[in-house]
Design brief:
This protein is an alpha/beta fold. The protein has 11 helices and 12 strands. Bound molecules: beta-D-fucofuranose.
């Protein structure tokens, strides 16, 4: 990945040289999308999901900082977790003739029409963080983000190893991300497939907590009321796990001991909970997508081919590893 990003950077430099020299002469070519200005500066319209989690905040910061560093003019819209707001923002960007549209789709389905509109306007689209389920892969140039199935699988495999000597049933509750979101669907899938290795491991309840602390707390309260024996919580992100901690403590149980807690993301607050022994394991999901996104924007604007799928590099953390990593954690 690192060599690849060095290569992108080199390509980006080359692309900007070409752009400065080229765009003025030939105006906004087909490959360059519908850009409104001829100053060689790329304008990107970005539609963000919302501000639901620590991950999302770090992701937004990464995108804004990287745009400034790369000299990309960024138009940014926060959709407040609503698909209709994202569609509206994308249509605005098309009307404004931005050079590149990038967005993180709140749910997987229902994007074909607006993506087709962007394609007809010759504005390249880059998916970041989350993908869409459109059958027509020509509707977007590339998808930059994590392998969410793998994250769920890593979480599940860790649990299988921990519980390999369990002689009786291990009751698991699951806090899902927002309904229909790629990371919710995929983390559920990966985790479910991994724990199938041990029939003692059973998901006894699974509900969306919308990736928020408030959602995690509220749903965990319900889980605790309805189920006298909960051994494990798998939360699709740190924030829901952090919300659940409050519910677990309020119910007189000790998080990390009475209930094993596994989450995804590894943002600072999550890592702190892990280092403090309240969480037991985190599968990392990197929000720092900004630099790669800007490189890709320059490439697609220059009409260069880019790989259709670019995966983020990630790891996992135990409590000991979290203690080590925490002092240098940037987000
Ligand atoms: O895990 C969660 C956020 O799409 C990967 O969205 C992202 C997820 C992330 O709200 O915290």
């Amino acid at each position: 990945m690192r060599t690849q990003s060095v290569r992108w950077r080199a390509a980006a430099v080359l692309a900007s040289v070409l752009l400065v020299g080229g765009v003025a002469a030939c105006g906004n070519s087909d490959t360059g999308g519908g850009g409104s200005k001829d100053d060689g500066k790329i304008t990107m319209g970005f539609s963000q999901v919302g501000a639901e989690s620590g991950w999302r905040t770090a992701n937004t910061t990464s995108i804004k900082e990287s745009a400034t560093a790369a000299g990309v003019e960024l138009k940014f819209d926060d959709a407040q977790q609503k698909q209709e707001n994202q569609i509206k923002a994308i249509r605005n960007y098309i009307q404004q003739k931005v050079d590149v549209i990038a967005f993180s789709p709140v749910v997987e389905s229902g994007w074909d029409t607006v993506l087709k509109e962007a394609k007809d306007a010759k504005i390249p689209v880059i998916l970041t963080d989350r993908s869409v389920d459109s059958a027509d892969k020509t509707l977007y140039k590339t998808f930059l983000g994590s392998d969410f199935v793998k994250e769920g699988r890593l979480a599940g495999e860790w649990l299988v190893e921990q519980k390999k000597t369990a002689s009786g049933p291990v009751n698991i509750v699951e806090l899902q991300g927002n309904t229909g979101a790629a990371p919710a669907n995929d983390r559920k899938k990966g985790f479910g497939e991994a724990i199938a290795a041990n029939p003692n491991l059973k998901i006894i309840a699974s509900q969306p907590g919308d990736f928020t602390r408030a959602g995690g707390k509220q749903v965990m309260e319900q889980f605790l009321k309805a189920n006298p024996k909960i051994d494990v919580l798998f939360a699709h992100n740190d924030d829901m796990g952090l919300g659940a901690l409050e519910a677990i403590t309020a119910a007189g149980k000790v998080p990390g001991k009475d209930i094993t807690i596994i989450t995804v993301d590894a943002v600072k607050d999550g890592m702190q909970a892990l280092a403090d022994g309240k969480f037991n394991f985190i599968a990392e999901c990197s929000p720092l997508l900004g630099p790669q996104l800007m490189d890709l924007a320059k490439k697609v604007h220059a009409g260069e081919e880019v790989p259709p799928r670019i995966e983020t590099e990630e790891t996992t953390f135990t409590q000991e590893q979290a203690k080590e990593a925490l002092p240098n954690r940037k987000y």
